[in-house]
Amino acid sequence: xxxxxxxxxxxxxxxxxxxxxxxxxxxxxxxxxxxxxxxxxxxxxxxxxxxxxxxxxxxxxxxxxxxxxxxxxxxxxxxxxxxxxxxxxxxxxxxxxxxxxxxxxxxxxxxxxxxxxxxxxxxxxxxxxxxxxxxxxxxxxxxxxxxxxxxxxxxxxxxxxxxxxxxxxxxxxxxxxxxxxxxxxxxxxxxxxxxxxxxxxxxxxxxxxxxxxxxxxxxxxxxxxxxxxxxxxxxxxxxxxxxxxxxxxxxxxxxxxxxxxxxxxxxxxxxxxxxxxxxxxxxxxxxxxxxxxxxxxxxxxxxxxxxxxxxxxxxxxxxxxxxxxxxxxxxxxxxxxxxxxxxxxxxxxxxxxxxxxxxxxxxxxxxxxxxxxxxxxxxxxxxxxxxxxxxxxxxxxxxxxxxxxxxxxxxxxxx
Length: 415
Prior knowledge:
By secondary structure, the chain is of the alpha+beta class. The chain has 10 helices and 17 strands. It is globular and about 80 Å long.
């Protein structure tokens, strides 16, 4: 069978999309959080119209929705959706991304030319060994690449392009959705599920070929604020209470060999202090709390509060407050009620000659929240590797295979 099975411009689209800086900004109060996201969203809306999609809209919140009309009209076929996010991680610069296409990769180390001290090697990225002869795409070494999730965008656009050009393929109505600010947990904040109008959807926001994820972390954000007493340091004896030291004492009391990202894997949860705003008078410690079991979040949060209380007791005159904000919940709780949504995705991968790996995301996607908003949404591989870093890469093979899975899924629902 020829490869790719369904020809599209997915790779060329990806190479264009990653050059647009769409880095999200958690400190921003706008939605989307950065103007660069608008630039890509407008481009996608224009390209969807140009390829013949219907009902193309870019709304006030930065969501692009569009329709690939049904080619089967004599019977009822469920409307399905495909979703990806336009923003990239705030953890690494996405400005002036220079994508490099390493054609017919031969298994050697890949030196990033703008920062040659950084090298992607098969020893540290063993999945490269499965891509001998395929094109590999990296950035130049100064930025991330942006395959999370511009690969998913390009794949959905490539599949839409193919389906619109081949009306002989039987499928029902298909909805396309592109969202902003997924990386900072806001991707579903203003998503109108009723207007999207699908029975179910699939995010393309995963890694290895064949990944099919129906489970995610449940997630909370927790803020612990320590208050001390500030006065002139020259006259502070027996008066000053330094909240920075209270917070440092608290952080030092966290478990050393468990419950942190650097000590957990598989199905283990964690508490992760990821930001500190410090001064003598007040120090704020921000946590993300993660676990596959939603009930465990409360236990982790209670443990942190006990540690905060103990730290304050060791520093008379200090105090603390705690606040918790729900972020998202394990989408398994919803998807277990709709097994056909996941089963058909697995069947589509099998038709594409892809070994299926059902698994759980040690993170979340827009689908985590959308599932609880009434749109069951598992996650499908997009091919992205080493995400959020200068070592990010993706293969052309995996992108073409993702297009194939989308087309096969559309056909399956028509059957």
